[in-house]
Write a structure and sequence with these properties.
Two copies of one chain form a homodimer.
Chain A: H1 7-27, H2 49-59, E1 71-75, E2 90-93, H3 95-104, H4 106-130, H5 132-143, H6 147-173, E3 179-186, E4 189-202, E5 205-209, H7 220-228, E6 232-236, H8 243-258, E7 266-268, H9 277-282, E8 287-293, H10 296-305, E9 310-314, E10 320-323, E11 325-326, H11 329-341, E12 353-357, E13 361-363, E14 366-368, H12 370-384, H13 388-395, H14 401-410, E15 415-418, E16 422-423, E17 433-434, E18 437-442, H15 445-448, H16 454-459, E19 467-473, H17 476-490, E20 495-498, H18 502-515, E21 519-521, H19 554-558, E22 561-569
Parallel strand pairs in A: 5-6, 5-8, 6-7, 8-9, 10-12, 10-20, 11-13, 12-19, 18-19, 20-21
Antiparallel strand pairs in A: 1-2, 3-4, 4-22, 13-14, 15-18, 16-17
Helix pairs in contact in A: 1-4, 1-6, 2-5, 4-6, 4-8, 5-6, 6-7, 11-12, 17-18
Organism (chains A, B): Streptomyces populi
GO molecular function (chains A, B): L-glutamate gamma-semialdehyde dehydrogenase activity
Pfam families (chains A, B): Aldedh
Chain lengths: 570, 570
């Protein structure tokens, strides 16, 4: 086994990547150091396809001993949405032992400075990247994502988001110089002169609460933003998606120790079934930062109760696409069909409400009535998923029984434009695979301006899963009004719109600027409203109810540390 | 009257200043565009000493009509701490009319972009700077600061803090480019290509709640940070310190209108006696940002209740100076004497607890016992303030009867090392002028580790005003332990220390880094622990209980706006 690289070797190795990341967040042009193609792995120390699978298989049924202090038990019980039991057990921590142990290494980590912290984080990401194939299976068998998506979103894209957070954290910390000489003229007298030292100091221990559907993609920004700013990080995974984050913690601990830091700067808090330790942890005085992705109810609880901490939440929202007109009817339909199908709509960014004028829309194929648009979209989804192998590759599996139950109930909400289809997965017979359901609803202004309707109750709630609503609105203007209302009352991670009318486009843009929602216009090709690219796209805005932070920007990192000044007479 | 400058003329005029400010916050070297000397004013359109006084005198007894919509009454009743009634009345607003009017101009202000907003803010500051002499009297006769301090802290230093906030706000907004071309390679296929637009959007209306003692210095950072990031700003002054902020609002409205924007982007919310409108305003849904300086009780209330807003608070703290040893005993005593005396200790940064080892300290003048240090400090303060004219020029007036009552009660807390002296002000016979009180207390660890003592109850509370405690501690190590405990439990805006021992200096530094407090070491000359300079020093850390934000850093501005992205296929 080769000797662990020193901090200075890590700088030599990773500083060019850090500089490229810093440049990327300035220009927001395309950039990624993490290959998207599975075949790009297998050389230069990274695991290839077969090796990654073997590494994952070797994990099954084992105890993942992270060497954490205060381990009082071993817990686990993940069952893959594809039906297999993972059988991996993880350390259960005595928090009163673990939290103090996590503080022990903080001084050395703080004193290392922003650059060394950044390159240590980059080394963690590099080693995770080398194991992307192994992580892909871990993400697939906890989130239910299909393999290719688990590979890309759970691998390089998540690593990109982690690296982006490191770049923002580094940039923020070096805005203030390490030292300054301050000399204030005093007329004929000697100037007043001070020497000033500035040190970024961490807030304390950060708690990252992981989610079921995107354990790495949603988890890495907070984890790396906190670690890069000098905090210790306690990772509390979703009980159904422990493995990808436990492996992440394992890698982080190895790299920290190898670089001469205390591995307890990163630790895992796995829990017993029903233990609900997130509430206990989030309100501990040692916890000064919380990152959370999940339900609005618990996100709101954290914001209200974890008052000793900076709380960053991504919660539920209701995403809208307005269909007003298009110059590429087929492209629009296929783009939307893909958006609705990807990972069975189990993305916080998947469109839910498709607002379509009741009298129809103009297209390059002539006028299309509301019923035609809806039927054509249903047909497009049906075509996309007609082949079972392709359907399995796009849809993945339903992540948990709640989503399945919600999907089944949603069929009763209105006229079904496209029923959800049950699809067999020959490789994993236990997988619950379902195609998207599209339900027609009435979004007439007279209802939502006068106390609502059953339809309104449906489309004004997040129905997380493969469910979307084709909502007939009285006019394009009403679509914008309903978009505003939905975003204001329920939040939105994404908004899409299709229009060939410049004035209408400006109206939609204005609505998104005022309601603070990220807008994709007229997507008809290979980019989808539910996908964002690190270093270029913001994920969420942090300005509407769906999330109080955006991935990633200055606000996401600036309050994870403070700058302490020591001044003396020069 | 000359024509109002256009936005482009403002760029030509102010961009160089903005660039210098941006450079200053990067290097943190000394810089200020606002002259400190009263004689520097009176030319190039600025008011000279006599003109400023005349302008202030002309305001007395008048109605300050700001031309605000929804004015339903005229209110006022400021009485100067120097005894004169100002007799100025201000618009009282019907909030349900004023708040909607403040939103009307937000779109144009947002669309103007970061640079034009910055130079409009700089023009506001320039016109305020030109009236520094007038503002000095307004600050003096509301805060009770002596003229020279009101002139400098209320004038150029406050303007510096405002400009610093504009610079941070500008820098933060331009971190993301206006547009980006994103092109992602797809192997042999055409790349995926998107055009992206990024727009900084405001959160909404910001509420700036002013304080009695530093209406402009503490008010300008929040006001200008919010305005420069595109928000409208409602200014709710302290009822005893309305005039400086009302004049500020007046200038801002003039400049906004002159530059073609809606003057209602900045408005005043003066209140009737006892009306307590801050609570009502702070929880209005339109209010999305709150800046507050004042009591811990109300700051905590705002943080807990104004949940729809980003809340930035500066509250009370207990500031410590550790006296362990010194190589310049006289310099230390005179520096501390000045710190305790300036504005009668009515600064959030004034030292309160002077921790002195019971067995005394080593100095360049030999060993000094605790009693000697205390007596010599008392003598130094006495000497500094021996001359009544000089005392008046340093102390200013007691800002309100609460401070006077607290001072009188504090004399009963322990042995008095230096009694507070009543000083006549021949120019303003109504002024309540008092020299600092120093009380000796016992800070033995056995008390504060075992349930406290009356002495502990005294030094562990903020006693705002000209009161400090010479606290005898058992050892230098105990001083650090008490510093840590005080900062952790009560917060601190400043920490000072005197020591010639390098190991002890490191101990104090480590305590400040861990407890997140700003440290001044061995100040013996013309810089004082209670003074911070914009562009170089941070005011507070935002990391202990005294304040949740620092003036000024990225975190202070980054969450006052969000960035909205609109993306389309290229």
């Amino acid at each position: 086994m080769a000797a662990e690289p020193t901090a200075h070797q890590l700088i030599a190795q990773h500083r060019p990547t850090l500089d490229q990341a810093l440049e990327a967040i300035r220009t927001r042009a395309y950039w990624s150091p993490h290959p998207e193609h599975p075949k790009a792995y297998g050389e230069n120390g990274s695991l290839g396809m077969a090796e990654g699978k073997a590494a994952f298989d070797a994990l099954l049924g084992t105890r993942l001993d992270l060497g954490q202090p205060g381990t009082d038990d071993w817990v686990g019980g993940e069952v893959s949405p594809y039906g297999i039991e993972l059988g991996v057990t993880y350390p259960h921590a005595d928090i009163d032992t673990l939290l103090p142990a996590m503080r022990a290494g903080q001084r050395a980590w703080r004193d290392a400075g922003a650059e060394i912290r950044a390159v240590v984080c980059l080394e963690i990401l590099k080693r995770i990247s080398d194991r992307t194939h192994e992580f892909a299976h871990a993400v697939m068998h906890t989130s239910g994502q299909a393999f290719m998506m688990a590979f890309q979103a759970g691998g390089p894209h998540a690593q990109d988001r982690g690296l982006e957070a490191v770049a923002y954290a580094y940039a923020e910390q070096v805005r203030t110089p390490d030292t300054a000489e301050w000399s204030k003229p005093q007329g004929k007298r000697d100037p007043l002169a001070l020497t000033k030292q500035f040190t970024p100091v961490p807030r304390g221990i950060a708690l990252m609460i992981g989610c079921n559907t995107f354990p790495t993609w949603n988890g890495y920004p907070g984890l790396f933003a906190s670690l890069a700013t000098g905090n210790a990080v306690l990772v509390k995974p979703h009980p159904r998606a422990v493995l990808p984050l436990a492996l992440t913690v394992q890698v982080a601990r190895e790299v920290l120790a190898g670089a001469g830091f205390d591995p307890n700067l990163v630790a895992l808090a796995a829990e017993r079934p029903g233990e609900g330790i997130a509430k206990t942890l989030a309100t501990r005085p040692e916890i000064r930062i919380v990152d959370y992705t999940g339900s609005t109810a618990f996100g709101d609880w954290l914001e209200a109760n974890a008052r000793q901490a900076q709380v960053y939440t991504e919660k539920a929202g209701v995403n809208t696409v307005i269909v007003e007109s298009t110059a590429d009817y087929k492209g629009m339909l296929s783009n939307l069909a893909f958006s609705l199908s990807l990972y069975s709509g189990q993305m916080c960014t998947t469109p839910q409400n498709l607002l379509i004028p009741r009298e129809g829309i103009s297209t390059d194929e002539g006028h299309k009535s509301y019923d035609e648009v809806t039927a054509d979209l249903a047909k497009s989804v049906g075509g996309l998923l007609g082949d079972d192998a392709r359907a399995n590759a796009l849809l993945g599996a339903i992540v948990n029984p709640d989503v399945k139950a919600r999907l089944e109930a949603a069929a009763g909400l209105g006229e079904v434009a496209l029923p959800s289809r049950q699809i067999e997965n020959p490789e994993f017979p236990g997988a619950v695979v379902r195609s998207p359901l599209i339900v027609k609803l009435d979004g007439a202004r007279k209802y939502w301006e006068n106390g609502g309707s059953d339809d309104e109750a449906a489309y004004m709630s997040e129905c997380f899963g493969p469910v979307s609503f084709a909502v007939a609105v009285d006019s394009a203007a009403d679509a914008v009004a309903l978009l505003r209302r939905t975003t204001r009352d329920k939040g939105a991670m994404t908004v899409g719109a299709y229009t060939t009318d410049e004035a209408f486009e400006r109206e939609v843009q204005e609505a998104c600027l005022e309601e603070c929602a990220q807008l994709s216009l007229n997507l008809t090709g290979g980019v989808y409203v539910n996908q964002t690219a690190a270093f270029s796209d913001f994920h969420g805005s942090g300005g509407n109810g769906a999330a109080n932070a955006a991935l990633c920007d200055g606000a996401f990192v600036a309050n994870r540390f403070r700058v302490i000044e020591v001044r003396r007479e020069a």
